[in-house]
Amino acid sequence: MGKFTDEYFTMTEKDVLQYAKLQLDFFDGDAELTSREIGDGNLNYVFKIQDKKSNKSIIIKQAGPVARISDEFKVSPDRNRIESEILELQYKLSGGLVPKIYKYDSIMNCFAMEDLSDYEIMRTALNKHEKFPRFADHITTFLVNTLLLTSDVATNHKKKKELVKDFINPELCEITEDLVYTEPFYDCSRNDLLPETKKFAASNLWNDKKLLLETAKLKFEFMTNAQSLIHGDLHTGSIFVKSDSTKVFDSEFAFYGPAGYDIGNVIANLIFAYENAEAAILDEKEKEDYKGWLEVTIIDIIDLFSKKFKASWKENVSEKVANYEGFLEYYLGNILKDTSAVVGLELARRIIGLAHVSDIVSIKDIEKRTRAEKICLLSSKKFILDRENIKSGVDFIQVIKDAENKF
Aminoglycoside phosphotransferase domain: which residues (predicted)? Predict the structure, then answer.
């Protein structure tokens, strides 16, 4: 029995250094270890442990009983088990497009994983207006492999139901149900808006009964459609990038839900980058060039996903009725419809709700920031209400361009 084997406690940098020495078979016996808390997320504690002699390093991520963003959110530490297991599964399915997991500890509610310090968080890089030409190819491979191959189309139904049970995630799902599907669409006390944006939200979203009805439908779809094992929080802050490589991480919101949820999150967060470029890049040629790259990336993600999905379907379909003529088109059409809806939900919740994105809040000119926020909210409404008709990459971009032209 010992310090790390009896009961859970929230570790400090000093504790995690001792933990690495005693509990991990990763470093050499004579290693000179240093530890640093590097987490900047809303939920967990993340530590980097490094050996000064060999330069070997590892990441330890620990989950506590409350969210770092607010004590209001009581969350089960079991999310750490869920994240470690889904990362191991996604690593196999995606061919290494997530970090490698070395150990999961059920007592300390932590896991050790590959250090990706030579990568950059994608949101940070996009805010510096960097380009990643291979990102669309990488992320669509990740999306197709993790979403299709965990669905009833390509997985034994009994095995899939066991996975649904293993990855049930009620506390984290409740956060999504509140912050994404509910609170942005009324004057909730936890919402956080600029005054002018609040007026716009009240007149254009909160008082639109048709829009509210659609968000209610979407919330119940999210809660009841166990379609695929989704990442559940796939924004640009949950993706590491280099010029030639992409790694998805932070899968703690994972559960079985609508496949379009992951795709929509990726697209919405690229739209935030698009509006950051519109507001923050002063040179017109540079702005046009960078927005042009983002347009192509968004278009490619939608269209490449559809192309790869169809190819993977033909190779991996195991359910007999899924081969009936027209079913593939029906199934993919529903995913794209959900994708559009989730783009709209994510655009609204990041502008109106508790958890903002640096792409928008870093815009120093308040008039430009307010314009960007209104563009996002107007687009949000279109993506939700017209989701049946938004199917191609060009359709997605056109919504944003139309909104920009109105301000």
Answer: 218-280
The answer to whether the pTM exceeds 0.70 is yes
Mapping DSSP onto H, E and C, the string for the chain reads: CCCCCCCCCCCCHHHHHHHHHHHCCCCCCCCCEEEEECCCCCCCEEEEEEECCCCCEEEEEECCCECCCCCCCECCCCHHHHHHHHHHHHHHHHCCCCCCEEEEECCCCEEEEECCCCCEEHHHHHHCCCCCCCHHHHHHHHHHHHHHCCCCCCCCHHHHHHHHHHCCCHHHHHHHHHHCCCHHHCCCCCCCCCHHHHHHHHHHHHCCHHHHHHHHHHHHHHHHCCCEEECCCCCHHHEEEECCEEEECCCCCCEEECCHHHHHHHHHHHHHHHHHHHHHCCCHHHHHHHHHHHHHHHHHHHHHHHHHHHHHHHHHCCCHHHHCCCHHHHHHHHHHHHHHHHHHHHHHHHHHCCCCCHHHHCCCCHHHHHHHHHHHHHHHHHHHHCHHHCCCHHHHHHHHHHHHCCC
Task: Tell whether 272 and 186 lie within a shared domain.
Answer: yes
Residues 99 and 128 in one domain: no
- Give the residue from 114, 135, 153 where a domain finishes: 114
CA–CA dist 164, 226 (Å, integer): 7
What is the arithmetic mean of pLDDT over 302-325?
Answer: 97
Give the chain's domain count.
2
Residues 76 and 27 in one domain: yes
Asked if residue 214 and residue 83 are part of one domain, the reply reads no
For 51-90, what is each residue's pLDDT tens digit? 999 999 999 999 877 655 556 665 666 778 888 999 999 9
Asked if 164 and 311 count as a contact pair (C-beta separation under 8 A), the reply is no
Whether residues 84 and 151 fall in one domain: no
In this structure, the answer to whether residues 225 and 361 fall within a common structural domain is yes
Considering the domain architecture, whether residues 255 and 376 belong to the same structural domain is answered as: yes
Q: How many degrees, rounded to 5, is the angle at CA 80 between CA 10 and CA 41?
A: 70
Average pLDDT for the chain: 95
Domain span including residue 77 = 13-114
